[in-house]
Structure to design on (544 residues):
């Protein structure tokens, strides 16, 4: 009995020593966005008991993958509500998997919105357009939350820039997010060019766009692509650049 | 080393007990677990083929690392739980301890034997996992290069870079190291419980509870440390959970690593050091419980 008590006491003392260490380690993991998942009642309701227990016990990526595969099936059956529900679960379980945020946003902003625009059950175009815009917004929401969880990954900034460019026709924001993507390590080589192209489409910011495009042009042959040359030519005329400073025809 | 220390710990005796334990464990059917792992991996690869390459690699890594974590943890508990109670039941322990082998050497040797078995199992699983991953990567790279034959060089290079980035990356080794650390911790804790447990089944049941509660421990701990408004009963309960159970969630970073995120070396080392700290403590505690046990 005395030995049992002594062992129990030792365990508690060991606990008192390690709790601050564990707390510090958890804080470090959190700061690095590891295990950025909140196990709460909402998630418990979404996942069901078994899924929640599995996720709690270190198998959240497996549960996430199973739901992702289920979402794939929902997409094939064009069940957009179910798809949204499943992707919310998947991204909650795996907030650090960029691919899931990107795919969720793509399904919402591109596939579901296109389906809403071509909905044969909705004769009024205004309502179809409204539904499509709601899906754009859902796509944007996925990407914004994805960026919040993965601020160091350029893929999501790029995806958000594409969404602003292609769906919202918001060139200023598109340029801003392409530029943010370009500033991060591992960014695709074209993102900086795309930031300048989008800036060239913003009225009132032509001088800024010209300076950026010209800087890219001056980097050498590899940057002198047809779109860049076209934008530069247009801006030279618009800004009345002196002929001796213009790029050759 | 003086005589007293030599009596307590001899590397030769320790190695002999560890080698004996390892050989005993390899004769068990436990290695069928590895076969099961291989089948799960191959089966899931076929299932994943219908998706695009990035999704396939993501799911492949998640499934493989999840399976490795599950089977290594299972192996750690099952292999360790039976060691001490069965040797006492078979009276093998008496023969060993009648020789100049200290109880600490006996327990440490048992633990190291299990840890060696776990290391070998994990190496075999990792080798199979990396082989499948690299083979799929090469296949997808070849296929993409063929499809993009006529595409501009920059575009083709970008696509191939993307495939390489989403398939194999060195961070996966960190994930494997964390899986091993968690399994070693579970083995050490199982050894401690088995020193006073009355049967193997009892140890396994206790470890199943420890496994579940250990994953909840950080939630209890953070709640205990951060909330002030709760009643004393709740606070006491949370404190007991936080103080008695290990934080197993700290070792579950493989989900994030499989998603392509890097863990800084310093954080990895800190997490592994925490694992070593746990193992040393549970081994010492097992020795304390076993030291004066009447055999």
């Amino acid at each position: 009995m005395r030995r049992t008590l002594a062992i129990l006491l030792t365990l508690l003392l060991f606990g008192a020593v390690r709790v601050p260490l564990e707390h510090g380690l958890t804080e470090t993991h959190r700061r690095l966005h590891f295990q950025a998942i909140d196990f709460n009642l909402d998630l418990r309701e979404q996942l069901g008991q078994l899924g929640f227990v599995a996720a709690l016990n270190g198998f959240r990526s497996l549960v996430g993958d199973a739901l992702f595969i289920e979402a794939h099936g929902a997409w094939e059956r064009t069940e957009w509500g179910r798809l949204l529900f499943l992707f919310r679960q998947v991204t909650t379980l795996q907030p650090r998997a960029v691919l899931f945020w990107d795919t969720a946003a793509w399904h919402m902003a591109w596939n579901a919105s296109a389906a809403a625009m071509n909905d044969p059950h909705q004769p009024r175009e205004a309502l179809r357009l409204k539904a499509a815009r709601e899906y754009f917004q859902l796509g944007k929401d996925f990407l914004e939350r994805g960026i919040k969880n993965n601020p160091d990954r350029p893929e999501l900034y790029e995806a958000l820039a594409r969404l602003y460019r292609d769906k919202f026709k918001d060139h200023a924001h598109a340029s801003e997010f392409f530029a943010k993507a370009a500033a991060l390590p591992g960014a695709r080589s074209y993102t900086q060019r795309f930031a300048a192209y989008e800036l060239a489409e913003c009225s009132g910011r032509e001088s800024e766009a010209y300076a950026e495009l010209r800087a890219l042009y001056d980097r050498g042959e590899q940057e002198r692509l047809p779109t860049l040359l076209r934008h530069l030519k247009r801006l030279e005329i618009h800004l009345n650049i002196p002929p001796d400073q213009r790029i050759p025809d | 080393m003086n005589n007293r220390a030599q009596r307590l710990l001899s590397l030769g005796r320790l190695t002999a007990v560890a080698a004996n334990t390892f050989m005993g464990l390899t004769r068990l059917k436990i290695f069928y677990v590895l076969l099961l792992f291989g089948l799960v991996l191959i089966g899931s690869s076929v299932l994943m083929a219908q998706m695009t390459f990035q999704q396939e690699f993501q799911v492949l890594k998640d499934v493989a690392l999840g399976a490795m974590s599950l089977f290594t943890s299972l192996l750690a508990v099952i292999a360790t739980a039976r060691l001490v109670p069965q040797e006492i039941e078979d009276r093998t322990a008496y023969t060993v301890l009648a020789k100049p082998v200290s109880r600490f050497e006996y327990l440490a040797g048992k633990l190291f034997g299990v840890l060696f078995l776990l290391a070998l199992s994990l190496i075999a699983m990792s080798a199979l996992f990396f082989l499948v991953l690299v083979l799929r990567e090469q296949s997808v790279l070849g296929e993409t290069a063929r499809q993009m034959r006529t595409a501009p060089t920059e575009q083709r290079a970008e696509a191939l870079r993307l495939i390489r980035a989403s398939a194999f990356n060195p961070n996966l080794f960190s994930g494997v190291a964390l899986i091993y650390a968690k399994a070693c911790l579970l083995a050490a804790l199982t050894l401690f419980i088995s020193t006073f447990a009355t049967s193997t089944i009892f140890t396994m049941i206790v470890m199943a509870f420890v496994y579940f509660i250990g994953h909840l421990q950080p939630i209890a701990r953070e709640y205990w440390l951060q909330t002030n408004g709760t009643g004393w009963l709740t606070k006491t309960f949370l404190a007991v959970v936080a103080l008695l159970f290990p934080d197993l969630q700290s070792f579950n970073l493989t989900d994030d690593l499989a998603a392509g995120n890097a863990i800084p070396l310093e954080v990895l080392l800190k997490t592994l050091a925490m694992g070593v700290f746990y193992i040393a403590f549970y081994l010492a505690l097992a020795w304390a419980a076993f030291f004066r046990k009447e055999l």
Summary: Residues 163 and 169 of chain A are 8 Å apart (CA to CA). Chain A touches chain B through 49 residues (CB under 8 Å). Chain A has a mean pLDDT of 89. The two ends of chain A are 95 Å apart (CA to CA).
